[in-house]
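# step 3/5: fold
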Amino acid sequence: MPRFPLLTAALIASTSFATASAQTWQPLGAPEGGSLFRFVQVDDTLIASASMTTYRSTDAGASWSPIDTLPPLVTLSTSAVVGNTIVALFPSAGVYSSSDEGITWTQVTDAVTSEQFSTLAAIGSSIIARTGAGELFRSDNLGVDWSPIKRPNDTMALQMGTDATRLTICEFTDVYTSDDLGETWQTGFTLPQASMIELYPAGATAQFAFIRDFINASTGFYRSTDGGLSWTLLNNTPADIQEVESVRRFDGGLVALTRTGSGSYFPMLSTDDGISWTQIPTPPNDYFSAVGSFDSTLFLTGQQGLSRSDNLGTSWTPSNTGTFSVGVGALASSGHAAYANANGRTTLFRSTDALTWLPHHILPSAISFIYSTAPGATPDQDELFVSLSNLGLHRSTDGGTTFTPVNNGIPEYPLNDGAIRMVVDLVRVNPTTLIIAVQGSSRPGRHGVGGSTYGAEGFIRSTNNGASWSQSNSGFPTIGINEIFQANWDQITHLAVLSNATVIATTRTLGIWRSTNAGASWQQVNTGVPTCSGVRPAFGDLITLGNDVFASIDSIGSGCPNLPTQVLKSSDSGATWTPASNGMPITSRAGRMSVIDGKLNIVLRPTLGGYPEFWESVDAGATWTPSASSPQYPLTAPHAVKDVPVAGTVFTGLWALVPPPACPGDTNANGSVDGADLSVLLSQFGTSVKPGSGADLNNDGVINSADLSVLLANFGNNC
């Protein structure tokens, strides 16, 4: 019997019968391990913000759940706590407050009023807001109303700190304090030759300032126990500290995240109120960007997500359950498995069902691109290549379980301490021959588009299955010299191989090239390729479908928003090109492409604003139509995992094109839709689940009245 008979009756009475949902794009979440910042503790709840998502934890950070009562795609930038009320700033959305430990939120200040706010801090029952221009405002009713604070001599409040009763601000070297919420001010400490001071609110006992003296090339970490009236230099911190990112007070003392002259970040601990500091042991082989605390527990955000320590850093454990790294930096598929990583992260994730993504391998540096070149009989036999930041190319022949560097002959960046160039595209021509394109400068656009061409190496080829590499630029001209007066070639942006082994390549300025001898020599093939002010366009992607090859054009990247086509097609191995964008909006720029079940997919980005969309062609590019329910902010064209298209997006993680269930409404998979299925749905009603699992009949990840509509529309059916 249903557990909630009254709810059942009410829902049936208020729900209209509906048909089963069609195939739609549904969110999968993202690889676990989101970067959490700006930790806020309220009673027994810990709140932390990631890019475009805010999470809460009720078990001291062991697990997390996203807060769904905030506007979508917003990031918490600063907050203040008054009693049990959190007041938080979400840029572009306004100031919101919560009095139930972050469960529900109410907007108290609109986005226009709070547009210039950069920092919030609490003094007693009042909240102080500092703007990027150094202005100060005060609210005595939890952010509902704000009034300006008169600053001494119209001083710019470049930094702000608070304790229980005192407000401290500084303008360059001058520090001012107020004990009456800015009604009157006192002059505090001055360091004549310092050119930067940063204040850290660390509780009622002490405040800290990090002072960088550029004139004398020295730095110092100072402590004040009287609210900023006087300061003492701390001489027991490492001499090479160049920056202090934050200072937090917790039950174990004080923790500070510092940066050294070498660029390394590490946390430091003080158990005597900041008089002395020691470095905290950290998880190995990681790069840290934020520190947080909950009672006596410490948290560190690094490349591998969030780690927690209950013993002041002696040991660390992952604390990523429920958090997602929403920026998917790379995505590839072998057909029966998909591989992804989060932006700037070192962990490779793998999925064999398109729905569940598990960490599979940790690489020695950040993954930039993933290439699936030779699918195996099983996922554990897939051949993969990954392009790593500064460490070149690594190869796996066991589905990403192990990797070996294959960089012999791949050039290094000029004047960059041995850093190996990033591989921005890779193709396998035959069992022994591989061709790669490497990054032509340290700061190119995506796939080299939009960056400097200095230092570009042209085509790099291996004829021994990656054991060694060498340039292969016969027929491909140089275009100048690089930073160290060596020959310079145009940037190769994309590579593709046709079924007849012809290799096609797009370049940054010289259009399209091809090779009919496995990359030994090259020929320019620009017949039909448009120009803009005499220059060939920038290309968004290059892909093959049978004997055809397609090139998408990034019109904005080309500086030519009025080009006559967004896609070019060649049916003669690249010799000639014709427009193939019939049906596409004129005001769009074409991006990444993929092929699934013989159907072309492409990402179109509007030039006049709005969300990018997926479009598709079922007739080899003759006509294009929008794909169903395109997810927002697509970053990658979809790849198929066991015939389920999966795509990665910038702000909303991974998405899948999920078909309707074979027997809509059959929650217990017994072949009929009846009262037992209704009982299952009601037992899960109001919960969040993996999209398509349990009683989630419309694949949106939430069990609600929409799922009940599907069940009732099919009630009594036998499948």
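# step 4/5: annotate
The longest strand covers residues 241-250.
# step 5/5: archive (pending)
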